[in-house]
Amino acid sequence: MTPLLEVRNVTRRLPEGAVLVRDVSLALRAGEFMAVTGPSGSGKSSLLYLLGLLDRPSSGEVLLEGQDTARLPASDLAALRLAKLGFVFQFHFLLPEFTALDNVLIPIRRLGRLHGGAARDRAMGLLEAFGLADAHQKLPEQLSGGMRQRCAIARALANDPALILADEPTGNLDSANAAAVFDIFERLVREEGRAVVVVTHDPVLAQRATRQLRLVDGVIVEDTGRG
Ligand SMILES: Nc1ncnc2c1ncn2[C@@H]1O[C@H](COP(=O)(O)OP(=O)(O)OP(=O)(O)O)[C@@H](O)[C@H]1O
């Protein structure tokens, strides 16, 4: 079966020559939960941006559902990200002037597959699933840190992406809220068959993933899912 996402011999070099990611190849399938670990500056975020079509490799291929993305214009990449990928970052990036509900509704409306009540039902369903039903009219600043990050995850799932990419999503959370975020990721993988890639510094949380990818100096030094 075609992998959800495949990168082949991907290198990302800065114009002045520094190499952030060097000759990385991997395939990611539905139902995989992959933790990306490695020392600070080892290229974890750089790799995640390449996997998420937020950045382009200097060389190598990035295929989403078998489609080569190399020559797609930026607008097509943005459309693919909106429809097929969900992102969660260390900082929630919720829009401060919009309610929790509107933050989840905005990507649904931008994609335009669901309208009116159906769009609202989808957004409310996600907020309910993450314990935010009663908070749907609150602004981000009125939510706790854990609630904000769960709202950011609800937003990442708004358009039903097959793949969720998370960069240090628990970096600003206490251990209970961090564990709750990983509980959600496990559920998305086990019960819904999505794929999750999570960059984390936390070795205990990383062990909850089903696949471990370790980077040093932009190179994969361990990938338990290879083979
Ligand atoms: N656009 C850029 N311009 C210059 N340097 C960059 C750029 N992007 C990344 N870097 C540098 O490349 C290296 C790899 O960065 P990256 O953020 O991918 O590492 P990381 O493993 O995610 O690090 P951390 O764990 O500290 O977040 C770092 O030394 C970083 O400072």
Automatic annotation (TrEMBL):
Annotated family: Belongs to the ABC transporter superfamily.
Transmembrane recorded as keyword: no
Domain of life: Bacteria
Keywords: ATP-binding, Nucleotide-binding, Transport
Domain ABC transporter: 5-227
Name of a matching Pfam family: ABC_tran
UniProt KW ATP-binding keyword: yes
Protein's name in the database: ABC transporter ATP-binding protein
GO molecular function, one term: ATP binding
InterPro entries found in the cross-reference section: AAA+_ATPase, ABC_transporter-like_ATP-bd, ABC_transpr_LolD-like, MacB-like_ATP-bd
PANTHER family attached to this UniProt entry: IMPORT ATP-BINDING PROTEIN (PTHR24220), LIPOPROTEIN-RELEASING SYSTEM ATP-BINDING PROTEIN LOLD (PTHR24220:SF689)
CDD domains: ABC_MJ0796_LolCDE_FtsE
PROSITE patterns in UniProt: ABC_TRANSPORTER_2
Signal peptide: none
